[in-house]
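Reminder: ligand-aware prediction takes two inputs, not one.
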Amino acid sequence: MGSMKLSRSILRTFVILQFWGASGQQTAFSLIENGVVTNSTANITAGNATTTDNSDEIDVPIDLVLDLPEYALEDLISPRFLAYQWLLDHPRLSSLTEDRKAQMYALVTWYYSMQGDKWDETAQASFLNYDISECNWSTEVLCRNVTDGNITYLYLSDLETRGLEGIMPAEVAMIPELRSISITNCGLDAQLEEDMLPLSFYRTGLRRRLRNINYSGNRLEGTIPTRIGRLNNLNSLNFDGNSLDGPLPSELGLMDDLVSLRIESNRLTSTIPTEIANLMELEVLALEGNRLTGSIPFDIGALANLEELQLQNNRFNSTIPLVFGVLIQLKKLRLEDNQFSGTLPAQFSGLTNLEELNLENNPGIVGTIPPQWGNLQSLTELRLGGTQLVGVIPRSMCQILSINILEVNCSNVECPAVCTCQCQQAVVPNTNTTTSSVSRTP
Ligand SMILES: *[C@@H]1O[C@H](CO)[C@@H](O)[C@H](O)[C@H]1NC(C)=O
Ligand SMILES: *[C@@H]1O[C@H](CO)[C@@H](O)[C@H](O)[C@H]1NC(C)=O
Ligand SMILES: *[C@@H]1O[C@H](CO)[C@@H](O)[C@H](O)[C@H]1NC(C)=O
Ligand SMILES: *[C@@H]1O[C@H](CO)[C@@H](O)[C@H](O)[C@H]1NC(C)=O
Ligand SMILES: *[C@@H]1O[C@H](CO)[C@@H](O)[C@H](O)[C@H]1NC(C)=O
Ligand SMILES: *[C@@H]1O[C@H](CO)[C@@H](O)[C@H](O)[C@H]1NC(C)=O
Ligand SMILES: *[C@@H]1O[C@H](CO)[C@@H](O)[C@H](O)[C@H]1NC(C)=O
Ligand SMILES: *[C@@H]1O[C@H](CO)[C@@H](O)[C@H](O)[C@H]1NC(C)=O
Ligand SMILES: *[C@@H]1O[C@H](CO)[C@@H](O)[C@H](O)[C@H]1NC(C)=O
Ligand SMILES: *[C@@H]1O[C@H](CO)[C@@H](O)[C@H](O)[C@H]1NC(C)=O
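Here is what comes back for the chain with 2-acetamido-2-deoxy-beta-D-glucopyranose:
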């Protein structure tokens, strides 16, 4: 316990966090390192997009559909024509409210636009059945509740084998209470901007209602449109596992209700824009598996709620950002397979909620494991192989009760006398990293 006390008092002189609270455009935190204050200086602006301008907002009038047949008849096999025809054939058309007609028309248009006639039977379920409420057409098209019959959630998943070529029709904006759209693992071959983010997302009331978009596991191509920043009531955005390229637009910083932002496993090539630091609600930021480069914006320290930061498998090439040490809610910090360099920051010792820390395969990391890291009392997994670390595992780390895996290169990093270590080839296939399992002295 003596060593723990020591490391805590050392810690105090290294890192003091001060959160100022947002004042004007100044960011909200400072990092104090050995008595030297670094304030976050960059002004956080979010590009030139504005969130308040609704001047171009239009409604999609239901009249356009029901009173102007030439609109719907323009193309006899178009999804909107098929939906229009379906609605006209409805046996109880005259008793339906306008809202209900709009919802049904939009949902059937969506069905045809997403190649519903090619879905497997489970997915098709009872779609288009006049005798069943559209709420109950499929267990996946969810209504807020069965009494009011409003559709809130469009959901399609795991149709990968077919390779859908659907598009998201503008008409979905006519579903009065739509909140969430999830089309995942469908192998959807489409352009993100042109096919999957129609203008009606931005120019109707849907813009304010939409909370979640999940397009993970498709084959979406193109860049992330800058105007996506206008969808600023979204709580979660997920484009994981697609083929998006180009930069992370700074306008993402306008989406300040985001709790979860995931764009892992794409082909993004840029730095992380400073504006990301505007997303003060963010709990999950997952950008792994891209070609992101450069350094991490210092202002990211403003993301005080961040619990999961996944930046592994990119091309980041700065020193390990000290500022991560202020993200005290972090549970998972994954930085492996990059070109981070320099020494391990003692400043991480404030991350007392951290469970998983991975820095392996950053060959430019040098030095020793800081004794202050014994303060990481929630750690279960620490991976430091594939670096140039040397020296002895700090005694203080043997006192971390929760630790299961401490991975280092056993040729270079020794076990302290007070710990028990087992050095062995890791059981993980396809890696030659040696593992040191550290346990406490009896
Ligand atoms: C940092 O910001 C605080 C609060 O705004 C201010 O009092 C202090 O003078 C600043 N320090 C430096 C070095 O800019
Ligand atoms: C921040 O913005 C304010 C007001 O827009 C400006 O006066 C100041 O110079 C900016 N500071 C920096 C560091 O860009
Ligand atoms: C904002 O507008 C200015 C002037 O039109 C332009 O130079 C700048 O690149 C724009 N910034 C962004 C982030 O679009
Ligand atoms: C949907 O099905 C459930 C269970 O069969 C039923 O209770 C509910 O009334 C149906 N909803 C509508 C809107 O018909
Ligand atoms: C279900 O719908 C009814 C009727 O619109 C509404 O009064 C009730 O609050 C809704 N319940 C929920 C949980 O949304
Ligand atoms: C949906 O909710 C609105 C109020 O938001 C209500 O007027 C309408 O009747 C509900 N039902 C349908 C099927 O749209
Ligand atoms: C999005 O879809 C994926 C794949 O189905 C799922 O794992 C994830 O939990 C979904 N939700 C969010 C918010 O990302
Ligand atoms: C990081 O990589 C980028 C792109 O390859 C390069 O332009 C930049 O100079 C590198 N920075 C450092 C510090 O090596
Ligand atoms: C692991 O080591 C073996 C023997 O030294 C070598 O043949 C193999 O290629 C290595 N595998 C990896 C993934 O580095
Ligand atoms: C471990 O370190 C030794 C000595 O520096 C080196 O030869 C070996 O390649 C390292 N192993 C790994 C998996 O990095």
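DSSP finds nine helices and 27 strands in the chain. The CA atoms of residues 250 and 273 lie 5 Å apart. We will return to this case in the review session.
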